[in-house]
Amino acid sequence: MSATGTTPVLTKPAGTAAGPGGPGGGPIRRALDAARTPLRGLAGLAGLVVLLEVLPHTGVVSADYLPPASEMGRALWQMLGEGAFWTALGDTLTGWGLGLVIAVVAGVVAGVVIGSVPVLRAVTASTIEFLRPIPSVALIPVAVLLYGTDLESKLLLVVYASFWQVLVQVLAGTQDVDPVAEDTARSYRMGRWGRVRYVLWPTALPYVMTGVRLAATVALVLAITAELVIGAPGLGNQLAVAQTSGAVPRVYALVLVTGLLGVAVNLVARAVERRALHWHQSMRREAQ
Predict the structure, then answer these.
(1) Each residue of 151-187: pLDDT tens digit?
(2) Tell me, what DSSP letter sits at residue 12?
(3) How many CB atoms lie within 10 A of CB 129?
(4) What is the rounded distance in angstroms from the CA atom of residue 95 to the CA atom of residue 87?
(5) Residue 2 pLDDT level (bands cut at 50, 70, 90)
(6) Helices first, then strands: H and E counts in the chain
(7) Which residue among 135, 147, 194, 223 has the highest number of C-beta atoms inside a 10 angstrom radius?
């Protein structure tokens, strides 16, 4: 009984949804919501394929420049049976992977060293801001002059473009260190390596993973660009050969392969990021 002599009425807390599983409809509702986005993406992709199939037959676009999707599919299927295609794919992935690893290692080491020493950061700030905006494609003549069409010329472009993505993110991460945590580490007489390992690195790691994800995409773009322009072995070189020979369906098939590679690289980078940052609050919010 309440103070007024009436029996209290029990009500549901505000925001509680009816149905099994508690708020929000439970795990079934959340699973359906999670599946809705990829299903919409697949529906959009299917619509694009239908449009590419129908559009050349309408006369709006000439089939000489935009063949139907079925012809692109046949060209792609034919390529999958060629050893030269898989060799070119391996060359592209080799240049991409080696360049990305070199850029990530160099960017992380340089970022941690520069970010940990305020004087060094101040001295290098103007140099970084001068070199970072230089387009990597502007280095193509230098790469050809130094290495010709070998793998090294591709690596030069890939590493240069990817390095800045990582370095800038690491420098931002080192600036985000909590001053209280830094002072606490100093008060416990923790050495420089200990402060880097237990204070700076956990703070900078989310920035590092963002830099790696951006660098992975940029590295793929520059690897294919180097092959397309310089003539280094890889998918870009095959794309240039197909364009020169007038094999239009093959050109589109190769473009499709490069697009799928970009999607795969992004998915792998995000998976690595989620695994490396499973303890971070941003990943916990994303999982909810």
Answers:
(1) 899 999 999 999 999 999 999 988 887 777 676 767 7
(2) P
(3) 10
(4) 12
(5) very low
(6) 12, 0
(7) 223
- Asked if 56 and 62 touch (Cβ cutoff 8 Å), the reply is yes
Given a contact cutoff of 8 angstroms between Cβ atoms, the answer to whether 171 and 132 are in contact is: no
If pLDDT is split at 50, 70 and 90, which confidence band does 24 have?
very low
Measured between alpha carbons, how far is residue 201 from residues 61, 277, 285 in Å?
54, 12, 21
Residue-by-residue DSSP string for 122-188: HHHHHHHHHHTTS-GGGGHHHHHHHHTTSHHHHHHHHHHHHHHHHHHHHHHHHHT--HHHHHHHHHT
pTM: predicted TM-score of the whole model, two decimal places: 0.78
Residue 21 reports pLDDT greater than 60: no
User: Distance (Å, rounded) from C-alpha 37 to C-alpha 33?
Assistant: 7
Half-sphere exposure of 88 (CA within 13 A, CB side): 24
What does the alpha-carbon distance between residue 119 and residue 54 come to, in Å, rounded to a whole number? 62
* The two three-digit tokens of residue 251, written as one number: 């050109």
Residue entry with tokens 């204070």: 199
Closest CA to 154 of 211, 221, 203, 245: 221
